[in-house]
Automatic annotation (TrEMBL):
Residues 20-455 form the Major facilitator superfamily (MFS) profile domain. SUPFAM superfamilies: MFS general substrate transporter. The chain crosses the membrane at residues 20-38, 58-77, 89-108, 114-135, 147-168, 174-194, 206-227, 233-250, 271-292, 304-325, 332-352, 364-382, 403-423, 435-452. It comes from Gluconacetobacter johannae. InterPro entries: MFS (IPR011701), MFS_dom (IPR020846), MFS_trans_sf (IPR036259). This is MFS transporter.
């Protein structure tokens, strides 16, 4: 572990930079890999624990709810205890939760264990981009963020393949037990190679942390209760509690130089647009990622193993395009790259909607690959736009908001999938793909709005 405290924008060089990014990459890979594996294995898990497709989405939602509810408090905590230390805590929690997931026998047990995984993942994801901002000098942040995106895509790419391999020879608990060796390696790398960063001297605001958890938790669980039509009265109370907590949190945080809920960052136009684009894009991606395994197994009659392999072109497309995006992300505006990428993703989803029941594996794979390449073009420049538009000294808040955009989009996407499965009688999976395309195109339009300022004459 580096003894010297880094200054933001200074960055590391040579072997120190490589090893620090190796530690970040292993940590991010652990959290992303498990999320991708669980998505692919969802139909198998649902059958084994006797859960309906709509209810089984809580295996995904529990992780995302816990992550989203704790992300901003953990980002604030990381600024106080150190980004590297919080990452190590998250790795330990994630490994323990993986064992509990493997030991689960009911949907409730699995959902609770996944929630603990979500907290561990939030520790990692709330600080990973902030660490990248310290590891790379300011002029090369785009490269670091792009490499981080490659790691995320690699985890998503390996997820379906690993899920297919595991499910072909063992039962689903092993998809969680395989986290143990990777988690151990990540903890060792994080212990020795992550850099020390400046710490905030402000005390941690526990009251605001509780309000943040109640706000996100109340809104998400309340919306989910409405979606599943389970206890409308309770759902209304949860929504009211969530809204009330948000109002109180906003009042409590107003005027603070480094607020836990960084609403002030949304007052920066570039940051606000990039946040909205990220949210919409991840809504689109979860419409696809969650519904596609059911499409492949129920509509296109593929096995669980084939399903995992056929989804692999999505992250493979992201990985293949990443070297190009990494070279140009610091030079071409996000309004150009992200808009092109999301249009390509939407087109891939439209092509999937046109598949016939007798489609070949190649017909399915190349369409998914196109959508994945588009997503790989969109993400690094949009994340870079969020990070560089944030004021210096706000790396923790900006990093947390990058993950909030992703997790909130994924969570809402999962809820919309459950809503579609619950209310659409005829071919709900096709409707999900159609909504994925619409969400991608709308996000592309929002991204393109950043280009309008070029046309405004200077007076």
């Amino acid at each position: 572990m580096a003894a010297r405290v880094l200054v933001e924008g200074e960055g590391l060089h040579g072997g120190a930079r490589a090893m620090a990014m190796f530690a970040v990459a292993l940590s991010v890979l652990l959290s992303v890999l498990d999320y991708a594996i669980a998505n692919v294995a969802l139909p198998t898990i649902a059958r084994d624990i006797h859960a309906t497709p709509s209810a089984s989405i809580w295996v995904i939602n529990a992780y995302q709810l816990a992550s989203l509810s704790t992300l901003l408090p953990l980002a604030s905590l990381g600024a106080r205890v150190g980004f590297a230390r919080l990452c190590r805590i998250g790795l330990a929690a994630f490994v323990v939760a993986s064992v509990l997931c493997a030991m689960s026998h009911t949907l409730l047990e699995l959902a609770l264990a996944r929630a603990l995984q979500g907290v561990g993942g939030a520790c990692i994801m709330s600080v990973n981009i902030a660490l990248v901002r310290f590891i790379y000098p300011h002029a090369e942040i785009g490269k670091g963020i792009s490499l981080n995106g490659v790691v995320v895509a690699t985890g998503v790419a390996l997820g379906p393949t690993i899920a297919s391999a595991v499910l072909s020879v063992a039962n689903w608990p092993w998809i969680f037990l395989i986290n143990l060796p990777l988690g151990g390696a990540a903890m060792v790398a994080a212990l020795f190679y992550l850099p020390r960063t400046p710490r905030s001297e402000q005390p941690f605001d526990l009251t605001s942390a509780v309000l943040n958890i109640v706000a996100f938790g109340g809104l998400i669980v309340g919306l989910d209760s409405l979606v599943h039509r389970t206890g409308p009265a309770l759902a209304v109370w949860l929504l009211l509690a969530g809204v009330g907590a948000f109002v109180q949190l906003a009042r409590r945080q107003a005027g603070r130089p480094d607020p836990m809920l960084p609403i002030d960052l949304l007052a920066v136009p570039d940051f606000l647009v990039a946040f909205g684009v990220g949210f919409g894009a991840f809504v689109a991606s979860n419409f696809f990622i969650i519904s596609m395994p059911f499409t492949l197994e129920s509509v296109l009659h593929r096995s669980a193993v084939a399903t995992g392999l056929l989804i692999t072109p999505w992250p493979v497309g992201i990985v293949l395009i990443a070297p190009f995006v990494g070279r140009v992300a610091d030079r071409i505006p996000a309004g150009v790259l992200s808009s092109i990428g999301l249009c390509l993703t939407g087109t891939g989803f439209v092509l999937l909607c046109l598949l016939t029941p007798d489609a070949s594996n190649l017909d399915i794979a190349w369409r998914i690959g196109i959508a994945g390449m588009g997503f790989g073009i969109f993400q690094p420049p949009n994340n870079r736009a969020m990070m560089v538009s944030a004021p210096r000294g706000r790396s923790g808040s900006a990093s947390g908001m990058v993950s909030v955009a992703r997790l909130s989009g994924q969570t809402m996407g999962a809820m919309f999938v459950a809503l579609t499965f619950g209310f659409v009688v005829h071919d709900p999976t096709l409707r999900c793909l159609e909504l994925a395309a619409v969400s991608a195109y709308l996000s592309a339009l929002l991204s393109a709005s950043r280009l309008l300022r070029w046309r405004v004459p200077v007076t």
